[in-house]
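Attaching the record inline, Q. Sequence:
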Amino acid sequence: MLIHGGFMEIGGCLCLIPILLSGSDAFGVGRYFSFIVPYLQENMSLMLAIGLLYGVVRVMGAIGLWKNKMWGLVLSIINCVITMALMIFMLPAGIMDGIFACSALLLILTQYYGDKKIIEQRPEMD
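Structure, as predicted:
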């Protein structure tokens, strides 16, 4: 969660801000990031704002998990599930989002539930 939020979401947004503020499309940012939904492709600055917001929330959830807080668990699970649902609209970056979100969700749930069984075996009645 921390790596995904810090490096990929926040870091990626911060790297693209100078390019978008320069106003020139000399770097051709739209060529390297293709989105299925044309609205997302046309509004790259809004996508940066959303990515930055997701990154901050993801880092906050990671900090909550690190401090062993229940709100961190819930926030992180919500963030992973939303990312998994929306990753299809943001290709090719959505592939890495999906890999990070799915693996983080798997680790979070494995740590929380551990060896707990769905149905515990009850002693047999004679």
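The first helix runs from residue 2 to 22. Residues 2-15+36-113 form one domain.

More tomorrow.
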